[in-house]
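Methods — Computational structure assignment.
A single polypeptide chain was analysed. Its primary sequence is given first, followed by the predicted tertiary structure written as structure tokens.
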Amino acid sequence: MPDLRWGLTLPFAGVSLADHAELFRRAEAAGYDDLWTGETTGADGFTPLALAAAHTERVRLGTGIVNPFTRGPAVLAQHAAALADASGGRFVLGIGSSSGVIVERWNGVPFERPLGHVREAVERLRPVLAGERGLGGFKLESPPAHPIPIVVAALRGRMLALAAEIGDGAFTNFLPLSGAARVVKAFGAPEKELVCRFFCIPQPRDEGMATAKFLFAAYGTVPVYADFFRWLGWGERIDPMVDAWQEGDRARALELVPEDLVEEIFVFGAPEEQRERLARFAREGITTFVLTPICGPDDLPALIDGLAPPARA
């Protein structure tokens, strides 16, 4: 099994990208191994990593994730090669199908054949990132000096199996502790990296539950995530929430969020409590933590320090 890695999600909420430099340096000094971006309604998946590359020397930088629907393989290869160059070979390309909301509703690109589309994208990217010619004769002006790992975002069985087959690892999200064993088994590649994003709320469960329920409702009602929770056996518990959300009754949907499922996904409490919780996921087979601090900008430095990985021998 790969060594356990500790990472953070970029960008940090509520902080201008122009003000991230000190936080990048703080995270690296605290011992974090990775910085991974998201890409929804905030910054794109690449720009924060370009900034991080300029202000760090050691940490790995990964997209978590970008999709091959809204960017073609040539553009993705250019992004990846540029970041690998800027970081001295510290870049990992996290790629996944995203969702119909982001791909089709927001960008007007048909969300079709997600499994096949991801497979084709990775197969087209591999030769180009190795300096060969790809689709339509495209070839990078300068091939990357270092190999660029590709981690495939995956929630359910077929995509997890694809990640094991063609990727250097898998990236999952919103994982309930009770579902970790099934995800690990479906991935079936203990020699490869299994990345998971965690939402860390530095409050006791009862105080942080309202925030967690809102975040869960926003994600859990997206079809790909609703299907993920059904696959893990939570269908009867989430379907009323999903129905209410789709009918436009957001208040009712929030009332119907299953709190026991939320408690399995979110990481609550003081840093030492959160570490204990994360350790349980590590024992189930998660190899890389990507922590998303849910707090205001003024509390970020202390939380970054508090959640930092334990000192290594």
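Note: The domain at 5-202+269-306 is CATH 3.20.20.30 (TIM Barrel).
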